[in-house]
Structure formats: structure tokens, C-alpha cells
Amino acid sequence: MRRLPSKKLEIEIGGLNNQQFLEFREKYAGKITAFAFEKFKEFQGLANPIASAIENENGVKASTIVEWNIAETNVKSEEKGLEKQENSVELPIENVNITIPEKIEVTAKQELDTQQKEEMQQTNNQGYSLSDKEKAFDIQIKNKQITLPNGKVNQGYCSDFDVEKLLPEITEVTFEGLEDVGLKYDKENKQIKGTPNTPGDHKLILKCKRKDWEEGKPIFERQVALIINPDPRSLWKNIATPQDIDYFKPDEAKGFVKVLSKKDGGFLGIGKKEIRRKDIVAASQRGRSHAHEGKARDDDFALNFDETTEWYTIVVADGAGSAQCSRKGSEIACKTVIEVCKRKILELNTDFEKQIKMFHTNTSDANRKLAGDILYKIIGVAAFAAYKEIEKEAQGKGNPVKDYSTTLLLTICKKFEFGWFVGAFWVGDGGIGIYDKEKNYVKILGEPDGGEFAGQTRFLTMPEIMQSEEIYRRLRFDIYDDFTALILMTDGITDPKFETDANLNKIEKWHDLWEDLNGKNEDSVRVDFTDDNEESAAQLLKWLDFWSQGNHDDRTIAILF
Amino acid sequence: MRRLPVYLLLDTSGSMSGEPIEAVKNGVQVLVSTLRQDPYALETAYLSVITFESSAKQIVPLTELSMFQMPEIQASGATALGDALSLLANKIDSEVAKTTAEVKGDWKPLVFLMTDGGPTDNWQTGLAEFKKHKIGLVVACAAGQGADTNVLKQITEIVVQLDTADSATIKAFFKWVSASVSTGSQKVEASGAEMGGLSELPPPPPEVNIVV
């Protein structure tokens, strides 16, 4: 049997006494599928409202509005003028509420003969004849508040549903429409279970039998609402960034800097050892929130390894979401830093390395200061140059510098025979860390600039950041033992993976991140960190697609391994 | 994850009975089913409903949008607006997480208040408590001509008025609320910035008049 959609009809039945009220109800026998008393103050909380209605001497009060759930058929033709009203009211799809202003005339005084009464004998939807007791029971079931917890598409659903707790007289229960949604009623465990597959506001039909049911006796039914939420993943659109916008940037990028092993040591070419050298892998992906609206990626990164000096430079930058040209800001920052570092390292390398070795031999404050001064001349100058380049671009276009707001996380590093020298500079949120899995060690190279309120951070483009003291304050450097990975990432990664600034210092979180990168994730995406594995760039880009509720910012990560 | 708390403060006093209260109920349902189709809102928005008549009651605690179910509401009694504001202040204290080094806090809440009459309680006390809290955005809606917009103006700068409290108008208001929540959740997710004022809200429909 095809089920007609039911509609809610509000009927004013002011001034009826109980007898009239009952007769009114009978008049609509067969069309009434649900009956709500919620609006009757006097019936609230009563188990059997119909019985109460009869007992209530005062009758149904004037101006009370009753909700009737009436199958779509016949009603229109019976109530003149209704159709017109129905069309004139714009309402949600599921419920149509119509208030009929004029009172419905119920001929209370008119005696109904026995034959008429028999003709009008009430049936429920199944077409069974109902006794008075059953009628009352039918109404009781329909008035019972039954709510099912909402579900989500593709996410396991399990909800206890013990009908006996609702109404002890009921024994067997079936749900019509449950299987269409991908769920089942498990009678034994009294649970609704399964994995919902269809989003929407579903109307299920609950069918039940009384304990004394036998062939020929009615099966009672009522509607139960079940809301299934869509899988949020299915709601995110992926609209390509239009190529003709100012400062177009591809929606994703990946990079790999392969540094081959070299032979070293020995004497006059004899007894040389193959020395493995670390590679850099990086990937950057536009966040879902940008993809949904066809907006460009604001993040950027740049990598370099200088074969002559053997210095690595790694930069990631996150253009501010609220700034119009920030994608260009991050790009300029990355490019400039790489360029300037390259130039400055070549220029200062001899002194710098001499000073690093002195610092290694004696980590006195004086030696630290001397090494720091040279580091400042490289990465401090690079950061400042990046700011200047952004300012130049902004002025050229007649835009405020603020429109190019970007964070900047950069490191330069080199392997010496006594360990790794790593220098870092960091403005804004995100994170830089040196992680050693075996030694259970992590060192964060700076402090994230989290604001007092969520969503506030510092940017390279803020004049107060570009003061020499402030730049100096943000420099970090030291000599480290060999490590598993040096990782730079934007807040698109740190937010979902670390959540808080405090967590950034927790080694467990870094272990989790490393395992995650190595395939321990929902989608089993694994980045293969084998030496010289160029494929790791594509793998890392794929890894960036991980799902994290509410975290859909651009994501950029660079790893030296 | 940072949640975007959304509080609905709904007047359920006696004067709202009949069509207005039905329209409010439908309005909330439309609001929720619309927001469920919006990925930003579905993932970040959390919704709570506080109703007020002779006293205020939180009928739905701050709930993930996908799990939200609208309970039955009825209209009767007076208009304890002050009680509603102090209850809201209370709930913001207990339900909205503040950012600390250890905890990433929620976004500042969005508050939508709808009333059709003047307050019948000592509303200034409630207002004073409410004013102590950092709120992202407060929109007060005077449903029909009976509401006191001067009182609402003291609660927030953003006051709107509905000419009549009929179902079409109330529905239009809730659609606008829904669009505003969408905009708010999109803003926090896409740019990490919060909503500040009326200018950042979507333009209200013709039924919703801005009170200046």
C-alpha cells in the first residue's frame, strides 16, 4: 500500500463539550492517523488523554487548537475553503499547518441511530474495527512521546528501543521504513542498529501488537521521526580556483629535494664510507573551506639544499585567511627567504661554520652570542627582506601591506661531524619541531603566537614584528644529535593534530603524528620515508587530505628526514 | 575542535500562544534542517534553546547541530527577560570553553533573542550579568509591535523588528538567523575570524526591519 504523506491540520474546536468532542472525533474516523493533546493544558502528563477528555466535565475549552494528523485524502473535499487556505500558506514540506478560523459545527443534539453508528464504526489504518478500549489504546500510542536519537550517514547507529518501557501492554514491534534508511530493529536486544545510508528527516511507521493479540485483532501504528544527518564529507564541494584571478596559485603543491649519499672519510680515496644524507619532502593543499567556495590556497612553502655549502633551507608560510592577497604574501615570503638565505650563507659560511664549531666546543654565552649574530645576518635578514619584498609588491599594486599578511616559519640546518646545527625563525601560529622517535625527544623551535582569543595570531607583515630586537627574540638555534625528522607545519596541521599550544610540547603527540604519517590513520595513507624516495611527496600530499571535523584550513607540511 | 555556540532565547509567554509559538517551533525546525545542509555549520555549530515565560528554562543544552532535536514548547505566563539573560550568562560560563594553554576554547557565542512583549521582571539585573560575558554577536528581535525595542537596544546594538508575529514573518526571521549562523561558521572556519557587527551579517529579508 502506498502511504500518502500525512499533513498536520489545526482545527479550532472552540466551545465543544465532551460529547461533541467525541463525536467530532468520530466524524473524522479513518482519516485521523495521529492525535496530539500537547496543547491541552489539562491533559498534560495524563496517560490516557481520551479517558480524561470524557471525564473532564468542563469539556474542551474554547479557542483550544488541536492538531490532527490527517491522511491527505478526503479532508479537502469535506472542509470547504480549505484548499484555498492551504495554498495560500507557505510552509515547510513535512508539516502543513492550517488554522480553520470558523468553528466546526458538530451536531451534538442530533441523535444517531444504531445503524448510523455502526456505519461510522471507527477503524484504524489497517482497516480493523476497534473497540472503545482499543480506540483509547490507539490514541495512547499515538500520543506517547517517542524520540529516536539522530543518526549520521555512514556512521554506525545503535539506539535502545524498548517498547515495553513505553507501554507495557505492547509486545511485538516492527518499524516500517527503517530498512530503507539502512537500519534494522533487533528484537532480541531491543535496539535499532545499522549504518544509515540516506540523509533526511525520515518518517518511520511503528507497528505494534498488544500482548493479547490474536488473528483478527488490530495492529496499532504510529509515525516516528528519525533524523539522519548527511555525511559532512559529502557536503563539501571542491571548486577549482579560477585561473584568471589576481595572484593565481595552484590548489596543491608538492616538493622533494633529493640529497644523494656521498662518500666520505678514508684517506686518499681508500676506505671511504657511504654517508646517507637527509632529504626534504613537502606538500601543501588547499583547505576544504577554500575548496568549497573556489577560493585559492593561501599557504606556501619553499625548499633548498645548497650542494656546495651543504646547508638546507626550509620555509613554510600561511597567508591570513582574512587578507585578500595573502596567497601572494606567503609566496613572496617563501621565495625571498630561500633566495636571501642562499646568498647570505655563501657570503658568511666560513665565519659562520667556524663560530658554530666554537660554540660546539664551548657553549659559553659569548660563543652563543657570536653564533647568534651570524645567524641573525642570515635568517633575520631573510625574514626582514621578505617583509620588504611584500611591502614593495603591495605598494606597486596600491594595496595595504596588511592585505598580504602571512606567517613565516623557517629553518636553516647543516650536518656537522659533531651533530646538526639547526637555526629557526618563527612568526605566527603553526609549528617547528625536531623529533627523535627512538630517543623519545622533541624540541620546539620557538613559540606559537596564539592570540588571547581563538583565531588571533601574529604576522610577518606587522611592523612591530620587524624590529631587530623582536626578530632576534624569535631566533632559535642549537646543535642537536641526529634526529628522526625536522618538521615545519602551518596551523592547518597543528590545529587538528595538536589542538593546543601546550600539546605541541608533548612527545606523545609527536609520536602520534609520526605514526599517522607512517600509515596509522583512517585511510591507511602512508608516507614512505625511505632515503631518496621521491614518491614520498605524492604520498605526503595524499596524506594531507585527512579528515578532521571542523578543521578545514589550508595544510602545509615540510619534513627533513 | 573549536565549536561555534549558538544560543536561541525564545519568548514563550502567553501572548505568543497560537500562531506565533507554532511559527517559532517551525522556525527552529527550518533553521536546523537548513543548517544541517551546510558543511561549515554542521561541523562547528552547537545549538542551545532557552525559553522564557514567568521564568527562564534551558530546554536544549548546547548540542551538536546534528544531534539537535526540538522539544515541544508551549506559550503561557509572563515575560521574564531578565531571568533569561542571567540564565544565558550562567550557561555561557558552564558550556562555552575558554582558550587556555591546555584547552583550545570555543568561538565566542552567537545569541539570537526573540520576544513579543516588554519584560515583566527586573531585567536590568539579568542584563548586568549578561554584559560581563564576551559574546560574538547578539541579535534581538522584536516580534510584532508589542515588544519594547528600547529595552532590546540596551541589550545589543543589533535590534530587528517584525511588523507582525505571523508565521510567514517569523519564518523569514529564522531563515535569516540560519543564514547568519552559516556566515558565522564559515567565517570562523575559513578565516579564523569572528563576526563583529551587523555589517557582517547577510542582508535581512524585507519582513525583518533593522531598528536604528
Oligomerization? heterodimer
Number of domains of chain B: 1
Shape of chain A: elongated
Helix content bin of chain B: 25-40%
- Major sheet strand order of chain A: 12-15-24-23-20-21
CATH superfamily of the largest domain in chain A: PPM-type phosphatase domain
Arithmetic mean pLDDT of chain A = 79
Number of strands of chain B: 7
What does this protein structure show overall?
- The complex is a heterodimer of chains A (561) and B (212).
- Chain A has helices spanning 18-27, 49-55, 75-78, 82-88, 114-119, 132-143, 163-166, 232-235, 288-291, 326-361, 365-397, 468-473, 491-498, 507-517, 536-543, and strands at residues 6-12, 32-36, 65-71, 99-100, 151-152, 157-160, 170-176, 183-186, 191-194, 200-210, 220-229, 252-257, 262-264, 273-275, 280-285, 299-306, 311-318, 408-416, 419-427, 431-436, 441-444, 475-480, 485-489, 555-560.
- By secondary structure, chain A is α+β, with helices and mostly antiparallel strands.
- In chain A, strands 12-15-24-23-20-21 form a six-stranded antiparallel sheet. Chain A has a five-stranded antiparallel sheet with strand order 16-17-18-19-22.
- In chain A, a hairpin with a 4-residue loop joins strand 20 (431-436) and strand 21 (441-444).
- Chain A is elongated, with a radius of gyration of 36 Å.
- The two termini of chain A are 66 Å apart.
- Residues 1-16 and 29-124 of chain A have low confidence and may be disordered.
- Chain B has one domain: von Willebrand factor, type A domain (Rossmann fold), CATH 3.40.50.410.
- Helix content of chain B is 37%, strand content 22%.
- Chain B has helices at residues 19-35, 39-44, 81-95, 123-131, 149-155, 167-191; strands at 4-11, 45-52, 56-64, 110-115, 137-143, 158-162, 208-211.
- Chain B is globular and about 45 Å long.
- Chain B starts with a strand and ends with a strand.
